[in-house]
Design goal:
- This protein is of the alpha/beta class and about 425 residues long.
- The chain has two domains: about 200 residues, P-loop containing nucleotide triphosphate hydrolases (Rossmann fold); about 200 residues, P-loop containing nucleotide triphosphate hydrolases (Rossmann fold, 3-Layer(aba) Sandwich), CATH 3.40.50.300.
- The protein is elongated.
- Strand 12, helix 15 and strand 13 form a beta-alpha-beta unit.
- The longest helix is centred in the N-terminal third of the chain and has 15 residues.
- The chain binds adenosine monophosphate.
């Protein structure tokens, strides 16, 4: 199958070929024709499947064929849970629209709003946004959503995890009722299904075929090890394997900082990326990692969400997540676009129950091994780390981008955070 057989215009085919893509990925093959027909779509796809081009290409085609008003109102709105993902989606929109007369911009919290407002005032066709900043600017009457023809909820599961449901509902109320809706999600909880029911109109369901799901394309391994010796084992794995680009996940921001320090102390260049880092620091860390200036990027789940790091060879779960779906998201950073990837989890006795949950979710027994010299204490307690406590800590972390000290930023507003917590528990 080729891109040209999907019904895309020459301008888009040229842009795709400029990106070096030869064949459409499975999600693109399925989603593009349906979106071109104007239908609502419920898509099951995670980062790494080519989902962004899967919705961006047909949207751009529909917009470029549609009627254009002189003042260029926003006609496509793409909502993402995090700033990083918003920036990446925007990069995609720009890249695919270079041969079209389509203008786009991106808005997210934690940074000065003035340049964003200035871009919107010039008139744009496609807006990529995180929910908080979008509502802020709408409340300030800096943008109107009354001409939106297409809405995309990207990584909808993560938006709900981060407590954005209220914001999403508010945003829905600002959109014209006649519009096309596309919902992309890696996982399908009851909450996501309820949201899809609310928003989508006779949706066509599309999914990446199982052979191409990241989980199956990735070689997964578990190393059993005592908690206190995980750092030593990680250093050994990095050194012995001569790993040059490793993404390591920790459960907490504090854990990420600590581990980063220890790696640097052992001559392994590393930077941490988490919600307490400023946007500038996160961007710098990600750039250094992509360029290969640092070997290890230590990240918490939320900070790493949706990061586009092509051909990432190694992902390490320094602590395995107690929310099983996060495991799928984490290891989705590797093995993309057909490249081989390895996901290693360092599992201590108290994480055994979480590991079982993950194995149930991925439908796979992940091979476990022990590294010589790092044999775990056979008598170590298997009592799990308290999930509730961790969950709360993690949720707090999810909605604690302290770089949005900006009063206007809803993502950074403690009252809103409390409200989101209340909603989740309800
Ligand atoms: P996504 O799942 O949208 O985050 O895309 C993952 C990566 O795959 C990005 O680096 C894209 O540039 C790349 N990509 C998207 N579509 C294709 C394709 N058809 N062929 C090769 N690479 C692609």
């Amino acid at each position: 199958m080729s891109f040209s057989s999907l019904g895309l215009s020459d301008a888009l085919l040229k842009a795709v070929s400029k990106q070096g893509y030869e064949t459409p990925s499975p999600i693109q093959q399925k989603a593009i024709p349906v979106i071109l027909e104007g239908k609502d779509v419920l898509a099951s796809a995670q980062t790494g499947t080519g989902k962004t081009a899967g919705f961006t290409l047909p949207i751009l085609q529909r917009l470029s064929m549609g009627q254009r008003l002189r003042h260029r109102p926003i006609r496509a709105l793409i909502l993402t849970p995090t700033r990083e993902l918003a920036a990446q989606v925007y990069d995609n929109v720009k890249a695919y629209s270079i041969f079209l007369d389509i203008k786009s911009t991106v808005i997210f919290g934690g940074v000065n709003q003035n340049p964003q407002v200035a871009a919107i005032r010039q008139g744009i066709d496609v807006l990529v946004a995180t929910p908080g900043r979008l509502l802020d600017l709408h409340n300030q009457r800096e943008l109107s959503l009354s001409n939106v023809e297409v809405l995309v909820l990207d990584e909808a599961d993560r938006m709900l995890d981060m407590g954005f449901l209220r914001d999403i509902k508010k945003i829905m109320a600002l959109l014209p009722s006649k519009r096309q809706n596309l919902l992309f999600s890696a996982t399908f909880s009851k909450d996501i299904k309820a949201l899809a029911n609310d928003i989508l109109h006779h949706p066509v369901q599309v999914e990446a075929t199982p052979e191409n799901t990241t989980v199956e394309a990735i070689s997964q391994k578990v190393y059993r090890v005592d908690k206190a010796r995980k750092t030593g084992l990680l250093i050994k794995l990095i050194n012995d394997g001569q790993w040059e680009q490793v993404l390591v996940f920790t459960r907490t921001k504090h854990g990420a900082n600590n581990l980063t320090k220890k790696l640097i102390g052992n001559n392994i260049s590393a930077l941490a990326i988490h919600g307490n880092k400023t946007q500038a620091a996160r961007t710098k860390a990600l750039d250094s990692f992509k360029k290969g200036t640092i070997r290890v990027l230590v990240a918490t789940d939320i900070a790493a969400r949706g990061l586009d790091i092509p051909l990432l060879p190694h992902v390490v779960n320094f602590e395995i997540p107690n929310i099983s779906e996060d495991y799928v998201h984490r290891i989705g950073r590797t093995g993309r676009a057909g490249a081989s990837g390895e996901a290693v989890s360092l599992v201590s006795a108290d994480e055994t129950a979480f590991l079982r949950d993950i194995e149930k979710l991925v439908g796979l027994r992940i091979p476990a091994a022990v590294v010589e010299g790092f044999e775990p204490d056979p008598d170590a307690s298997t009592d799990p780390v308290k999930p509730q406590q961790n969950r709360q800590r993690q949720q707090k972390q999810h909605r604690q981008p302290t770089d949005s000290n900006n009063e206007n930023s809803k993502e950074g507003n403690p009252k809103r955070r409390r409200n989101r917590n209340r909603y989740r528990r309800g």
